[in-house]
Design a protein that fits this description.
This protein is of the alpha/beta class and 420 residues long. It has 2 domains: 270 residues, Aminopeptidase, CATH 3.40.630.10; 128 residues, Aminopeptidase i, Domain 2 (Roll), CATH 2.30.250. Helices cover 26% and strands 28% of the residues. It has a 9-stranded mixed β-sheet, with helices on both faces. A 5-stranded mixed β-sheet has the order 11-12-20-19-15, with helices on one face. Strand 7 and strand 8 form a beta hairpin. Helix 5 packs parallel to helix 10. The longest helix is centred in the middle third of the chain and has 16 residues. The two termini are 22 Å apart. The structure holds zinc ion. Zinc ion binds next to helix 5.
Length: 420
């Protein structure tokens, strides 16, 4: 797939995936179209050699794999489906000072400032009781601008440009109406009706997140950049998903996109949970074979990297400061915040060199703390040799992040051409 088609598809995927639930559903649809067979965790699996499969957990994480059967050397790629956002609280509606607003809880380490004065919409999963008293789930996406967090005018805070701090409890509530008749239950029933869910007896719970309605876009003189919400880490999800869809079913490959990375990965659908291990053990039920497979495979953990910011260059180590559009970044940390080691790095470099693709390296300044990602968690849990890589970006965890329009396609070429 050429770079232009790749990037057009990327923009569509970003816009269609406002939450991990939607990202997972969209990836599942892509896998269906590419001939992957759906598996269910609560049914028996009878895998056939030469076929390819996918399975989801909690509607928010997904694993896809090829099954050549006798080849134990798997190329695995790990990413995450979640991004920082404002999540609706269970009893969200607040009516005061002439407006209806929502109580929200920040999810993950979001940059709060960029959430002000944005046209926000709401999406996620609603769990309800149907006419036959069964608990069901449905995904909703309001799609239109529904709410906004207005800034406080500078006249009311003359220190706003110097030292304004943000209180997560009181300052971040999106307002949605001046009509105090609003009832959340009615609103959610209307949204469910829009997606064809009509037998709703009672709505019990929801996991709904606000998102920016501004669409993903090319920005720059020659479309140098891609600006969008959730580039961390839907950029890697999309790239890895297309890669496994592009390779032959004879090539042993597995892709996992986990939820809850932004809050530490500890959950049933997070990389700290059992999803990958359970799935691998069902693919390789013989313990001897399972261990051989794990120890001969390689996990490429793909999560975005910090490009050196032209306005804040001092925040980077000058020798490990990746540029936008100059290639995939290998992430290294002596204290194992990244799982890369010299052996896995060498394997990755060998592949990039064979494909004539550039690489860059990132190490956090020694006087700053280092972020982490799913790489070390998966390496620890499963015992698979791992490398942490990522695409260079600015504004990570902002409501609108920025990546290069060349880099993701370069990662795609490495992943599809990778030889273990
Ligand atoms: Zn990330």
């Amino acid at each position: 797939m050429n770079r232009e088609d790749f990037n057009e598809g990327l923009l569509g995927f970003l816009d269609a995936s406002p939450t991990p639930f939607h990202a997972t559903r969209n990836m599942a649809m892509m896998f269906e179209n590419a001939g992957f067979v759906k598996l269910n965790e609560v049914e028996n699996w009878e895998l056939e050699a030469g076929k390819k499969y996918y399975v989801t957990r909690n509607d928010s994480s997904v694993i896809a794999f090829t099954y050549p059967k006798n080849d134990l050397k798997y190329l695995m790629i790990g990413t995450h489906t979640d991004s920082p956002n404002l999540k609706l609280k269970p009893n969200a509606v607040i009516k005061e000072h002439g407006v209806v607003k929502f109580g929200v809880e920040p999810y993950g380490g979001l940059l709060l400032n960029p959430w002000f004065d944005r046209d926000l919409s709401l999406a996620g999963r609603v769990s309800y009781l149907d006419a036959e008293n069964r608990v069901q789930n449905a995904l909703i996406d309001v799609q239109k601008p529904l709410a906004i967090v207005p800034s406080l005018a500078i006249h009311l805070d003359d220190k706003a440009n110097k030292d304004r701090t943000i209180n997560k409890q009181t300052d971040m509530c999106p307002i949605l109406s001046t009509n105090e008749d609003f009832e959340l239950d009615d609103f959610l029933r209307w949204q469910l009706d829009k997606v064809g869910v009509r037998d709703v007896k009672e709505i019990y719970a929801n996991e709904l997140s606000f998102y920016d309605t501004q669409k993903a876009a090319f920005v720059g003189l020659r479309d140098d950049f891609i600006a969008s919400a959730r580039l961390d880490n839907l950029l890697s999800c999309y790239t890895a998903m297309l890669s496994i869809c592009s390779v032959s079913e004879e090539k042993p490959m597995l892709f996992i996109a986990s939820d809850h990375e932004e809050v530490g990965s500890d959950s049933t659908s997070g990389a700290g949970g059992s999803f990958l291990e359970s799935t691998l053990k069902r693919i390789f039920p013989n313990f001897e074979e399972y261990i051989q497979m794990v120890r001969s495979s390689l996990m490429i953990s793909a999560d975005n990297a910090h490009a050196i910011h032209p306005n804040y260059p001092a925040k980077h180590d000058a020798n490990h400061a990746p540029y936008i559009n100059k290639g995939v970044v290998i992430k290294v940390n002596a204290n194992q915040r990244y799982a890369s080691n010299s052996q896995t790095i060498a394997k990755f470099m060998q592949n990039a060199k064979n494909l004539e693709l550039p690489l860059q390296e990132f190490v956090t300044r020694s006087d700053m703390g280092c972020g982490s990602t799913i790489g070390p968690i998966t390496a620890t849990r499963i015992g698979v040799d791992t490398i942490d890589v990522g695409l260079p970006t600015y504004a990570m965890h902002s409501i609108r992040e920025l990546a290069g329009s060349d880099d993701a396609h370069m990662l795609y070429k490495i992943l599809t051409g990778f030889q273990l």
